Structure formats: C-alpha cells, structure tokens
Amino acid sequence: MPDHQRGAQAEESSYEVAQQQFNIVADLLELAPDVREVLRYPKRELIVHFPVKMDDGTVKMFTGFRVQHNIARGPAKGGVRYHPDVTLEEVKALAMWMTWKCAVVGIPYGGAKGGVICDPKKMSVGEIERLTRRYTSEIALLIGPESDIPAPDLNTSAREMGWMMDTYSMQKGYSVPAVVTGKPLSIGGSEGRREATGRGVTFAIQEAARHLNMDLLDSKIVVQGIGNVGGAAADLLSRTGAKIVGLSDSKAGVFNSKGLNVAEILRYKNENGTLQGFPEADAVTNAELLELPCDILVPAAIQSQITGENAPCIKTKVVAEGANGPTTPQADDVLNDRGIFLIPDILANAGGVTVSYFEWVQDLQSLFWSEEEINARLEKIMTKAFRDVYNTARERKLDMRSAANVLAVSRVVQAFRDRGIYP
Fold first, then answer.
1. Where do the structural domains in the chain lie, given as residue ranges?
2. How far is it, in rounded angstroms, from Cα 394 to Cα 396?
3. What is the CA radius of gyration of the chain?
C-alpha cells in the first residue's frame, strides 16, 4: 500500500467520540433537528494529494487534509499535524473540538484542523520544508487571516509555521504574518506561545484545586507526555511547589513517589531523545503510568488513552486533559461514577488557541505585548472559562465535560441563530 494511503485505513474512533459527545450535549440542550444537522457536519473538507521531491531525487506523493467545522463565531482556527496515522476522520473530529474549545473560552473563532500523512521522524529538514511549502500552496485557497488561521500541532512547530507564512506571503506578494500563529518571534510570533497550552493546563489545575479545596503543595501529579504541553505543564506545576511523581514520552515513562526533578528530566530528554535510562527513577510503561496513584493525572499525549478498560484502574482525584480527546465516552462514565473530577480538553488545553488569538490580534495591529501581559491575559481568560464551566455544571447538575460542551455548543448555536441562513 502506498505511504500516502496508509492513514485511510486507521480506525475512525476520534470522529465517533466527537459525534457521541455532540449527541449528548444536543440532547441536554434539546436542540432542534435542523440545528443538530448544521452543527454535526463540517462546513468544508479539503483533501489534497501532492508531490514532494525527496533528497535522493525521487518524487513521493503525500496526502493532506484541511477541515473547517464551523465559522459562525469567526474565522476558522486550528493546528496542522504531521503523523503516519493522520486520517480525515481524525481531522474532522479535531476540527469539531476546536469549534467548542474556542467557544468555551469565548474567543471569536470557529474550529478547523489540518494534517499530512507522513513520518517526519524519517524525513530530513529539507524534505519537511518542501512538504510544508507544497501543502501550504495546496490549501492556500482556504487559509488566510480573515478565513482560516493554521497553527502548530503534533510534530509541527514554529519552524513549520514560518515556512507556511513565507509560502503564503510569496503567493500574495507581501508579508502576511497573521495567516498563521505559533510563528518565530522574528516574523510576528507572540511571546509566551510555546508554553501557552501547558500554562493554560496549569491555570485550569490551579483553579480546580481552589474549588476542590486541594493544596497543590501536598499533591502528587502524573503527566503523560513530555512535549510542548506535558513538558511545559510539568515544569510550571513543579515551579509552584507541586510534586511531579510520574512523566512519560511516547516510548517510556519514569516514576518516583518522592518526586522527580522535572528540569533534569527535560534536559535528559533533550540530550538523549528519550526518557529510557533516566536514573533516580523507576521505569514504567505508558499504560502503567496512567494507573499510578496520584492526586492529579494529566494525559497530555494523544487521544483515547483512558478507556472503558483502564478507567476502573485510574487512581487519581482529578484528571486534567492536556491532550485532545484522551478519554473515551465509556471511560467518562466510569470516572464520573467513581467521583473523579475531570477538567475536559476543550477547557484544560485551550491556552494554546487563546494565545494564538493574542498573536493574531497583535499581527493585525502590528502592536506587540510583553510576555507578562500575555500571561496575565491568559490567566484571566482561563480562570473565567473554568468558573463558567464549573458554575454551569453545578446549576445543571452535570459533569464537567457535559457542562463545557453545553456552554460551548450553546454559544455556537446562538451565533448561528443570530446570523441566520444565507440566502
């Protein structure tokens, strides 16, 4: 099977999860059938097949996607991921979640997502650059500062956003920094963007601790994933005095009930490319890491990590979803029945898109803010969003995921109704 077709064979679980979650909230809101139909489907789905010249002179075909779910509240917003298992169904699910995420924190965006089926770990920098520029050219008919603003996601970073911004600008004939967010600072990026998602997770956990009367100084925290989200959250939480007892990357995990030196682990990961062999800690698998005893569990890797099978074995008081869709609906039921407090992904990890919004605003104004101002604005938005969701949960007697979805979907529904249907 050609490489560019492999992703089509992956399971469609992410989109099924997104649809199940939407059905639950649609029932809670008693949405009319016509409104359900509008919100259920993406507005646009673009599939592109494009050639890239590889370093050895051969030409290889790749498949990419860009999906816009809903733009009732503003331009579409969402990251671009590079991974061998990217599928259209996954991208559709992530675009839908982005719609709710932007709405729950009150920023004026709709949801989008993009992806390319590839393995960047097996590609040179030159090959990744050529792939990025060609993919950007292929989706250029959809993206733009007023229509759809991409950002980094799985296996993409400021580097790729710089290439995307440059490619789009070359086609326009002038610089368009606001076409993407998460760029390098030198070309219109924002202070604080790299740590923003992890910082948002931290703010959400701090607010949850306040409402649950938990002392973070006495709390043991396990973080699955040591990338931009998990690594930043672990580092920031450890700086507050919380004890990080478990950490993992995609291949290995480490555990120490007395606490881990997060800075040393991050340095070790950067130098060795893996956590395997890290001293002064016990080795654990990712599956074992999720079941470690702790006060707060932060799944910050990939989706569908907490399932109906392992949810009964989760030993924590709070789950803060740093990743998108790490908990299945079946696991939600188990965690709710066990009284485990969950901070859902569309709330917990909304710090990234919030600071992306700040970057977009700064680019449009050509007026930039300090990191202190950005972090203060982020904390204000995350704190308000948490309280809005928490109050909705209490008033409607809902779990936190249902409350977040009710709040988000109701805001999108209101925008849809206020705009009406053209023509």
1. 3-178, 196-345
2. 6
3. 21
